[in-house]
Amino acid sequence: MKKNSKSSLKEIEKIFSEEPSVNQKAWGIINDFYHFILSRMEEEGINKADLAKRLGRSRSAISQMFSKNPNLTIKKMVEIADSIGLDLVIIPNELKKEIGKVQKVYVVVNGNPSSYRQQQFNRDYTTTFSHEMPEIVAQCSTVSKYKEEYLH
Amino acid sequence: MPKVRKEHNNVKFFEIPIPSKYGATINRIYHVVENGKLVVMGPFKNLDGDHRDRTIDLIRKMATVDNYKSDNIKYRLQGYTYGEIRPKPHRFFFFQKCGKNLIFFSYVLKKTNSLSDSFYKKLNKDKEKYEKEFEKFIERNRENI
Question: Which pTM was predicted?
Fold first, then answer.
């Protein structure tokens, strides 16, 4: 293999193996946001036209939000998440580390106490975590195991 | 003189390392190097900062999250078994899933938002060749993978 190909390979390896930069972390949050939104929409059978109706926006405005180069503000993210029953919550690193010890984490994702829902996510992608967890957990029989084992 | 198309006689596959911070790897990610040329990752390096960083994160998530959803990723193009990532409207990175491996095998930059069916058909032939080469690669490296 040519010398410059070898150095390009090393460069690629370095780009992917190094710790994420601030910019990559920021894009990671946006990517995760869309992953959760799209997953939720699929589960609930919500299409982009429905989402536009819920948000009182045009279909093209929604398409723009999901475009290749989204111009997303936190306000817009909250608005979208809220419309399909998701909360955006910042959690401290210590709690994230605790969560990291758990293979699977149950996360309460619905803000309506009468219909709390729980989902199982990969431990490293738990970006939604309610600060009301103890009370919510108390009301959810399926997450009581999680409470017993991990929430102290 | 008619152009002679080179055979894929010197195809290599290189695994993309994923930092442990992203969690356990579910899918191994490979990219093709053909006749010493980085078919996909060469042009990838030249993406501008934001698009590159977003795509790096997407690829890492594809490696560690099952069925990671994004409007930039199509896991299967209609009528074909391969998928694409489009970090920008005119830039297409193509990949094929082989078991628990994702192989990035082609890149194209076009001045249009969509590609012709003949392009996808031709790409499908390339994909089949790379798939065969990948099977051989897996066979050769069975003990290490």
Answer: 0.76
